[in-house]
Amino acid sequence: MIPFLDLHEQYQSIKSEIDGAIRGVLDSACFVLGPEVDAFEKEFAEYCSVAHAIAVNSGTSALHLAFLSVGIGPGDEVITTPMTFVATTAAILYAGATPVFVDIDPRTRNIDVDLIEAAITSRTRAIVPVHLHGLMADMGRLMKVAEDHELIVIEDAAQAHGAEYRGRRSGSIGQLGCFSFYPGKNLGAYGEGGAVITNDGELATKMRILRDWGQSSKHNHVLKGYNYRMDAIQAAVLRVKLRYAQAWTEGRRNLAARYDSLLSGSDLITPARDATYRHVYHVYAIQHSARDIMKRRLEAAGIGCGIHYPVPVHLQPAYRDLGYGIGAFPVAERFAAETLSLPIYPELDIDHIEQIAGLLHAIPSEAAA
């Protein structure tokens, strides 16, 4: 058996540190916000090369607070991509704004910057690039569009911890960057967690107030806020894991390079590789018209795999009221129908990569026979 992800093995590799960190929180009896969260915020901000990190209880909460902090609300439009987890769209709706989708680039699978200007209206307030699978969007060109139209950029970096564009870390280029620490992420908690990063001190202060019931100090509620606080156990776990983030990322990148080498010459489309970007491979997704056959064959061989994401947001039943139908975003729709995510995590044996690649080489020719 080759699991799609093995969090148990990761835990075993750092068990003593994790257990000690959790015991420290239990001994302190400080379970919500507090010193561990403060320390994690400082360390994560440094990791991202920004001035401020605001720790919250999920990546969705991070997005919601980011929108609220810049005053996005009813009547506003926010441009993003339908090839993402539904949380990106949900958070825009939580703020009372309207999501406006733009199709993806077929090579990077990220928002197609060439299509953004055509989607801008007098109601557009922000652009939300989603750094899908750990590869950043074309932030240089995107920021130019945003600046030309005086739009806010909020990076959805939920899958891109430590990714880079021209040497700059994900989340640090737009006005705000939002992260998820869901357990399966490259930097994952042992429960839910998220963070917003920014270089704007006023926005940081506002988000700290909003996440804690709108309190500027105890029992002084100056804003209508939310219960979006991070718990200390998650912060303690994340502080331990953050020390390994760089090594784990390089492990993923080495495995991805091996996949690339072994799958070259096949008719599979592999993730884009470009010196402009530092891809962190939260997901290693291949693309092929025989995706469903490949998935069945891999699973029959005891190899875990997944699909990120089988239905674009605009075709999800819950979001059909946004007014889009089949054919609205053909590149995203084709990718959703053909994408397959392969095992990739630092603890994965390189021999398993060779086994998986060998099976993948055989399946397309068998399917065509």
How many DSSP helices? 13
Strand coverage percent:
5-15%
Structural class: alpha/beta
Radius of gyration: 21 Å
Judging from the principal axes of the Cα atoms, what is the shape?
Answer: globular
Question: pLDDT average, as an integer?
Answer: 96
Largest sheet: 7 strands, mixed
Distance between the termini: 28 Å
What share of residues is helical? 25-40%
Poorly predicted ranges (pLDDT <50, ≥5 residues)? none
| Biggest β-sheet: strands ordered side by side in the sheet | 1-9-8-5-4-2-3
H-E order = HHHEHEHEHEHEEEEEHEEHHEEHHEH
Secondary structure tally: strands = 14
Question: Could you please describe the fold and organization of this structure?
Answer:
- The chain is of the alpha/beta class and 369 residues long.
- It contains 13 helices and 14 strands.
- A hairpin with a 2-residue loop joins strand 10 and strand 11.
- Helix 4 runs parallel beside helix 5, helix 4 crosses helix 8 and helix 11 packs across helix 13.
- The radius of gyration is 21 Å and the shape is globular.
- The relative contact order is 0.16.
Topology:
Blueprint: H1 7-13, H2 15-28, H3 35-48, E1 52-56, H4 59-69, E2 77-80, H5 87-94, E3 98-101, H6 116-119, E4 124-127, H7 139-148, E5 152-156, E6 164-165, E7 168-169, E8 176-180, E9 194-198, H8 201-211, E10 215-217, E11 220-221, H9 232-242, H10 245-263, E12 277-278, E13 284-287, H11 291-300, H12 330-338, E14 339-342, H13 350-368
Parallel strand pairs: 2-3, 2-4, 4-5, 5-8
Antiparallel strand pairs: 1-9, 6-7, 6-12, 8-9, 10-11, 13-14
Helix pairs in contact: 2-9, 3-9, 4-5, 4-8, 10-13, 11-13
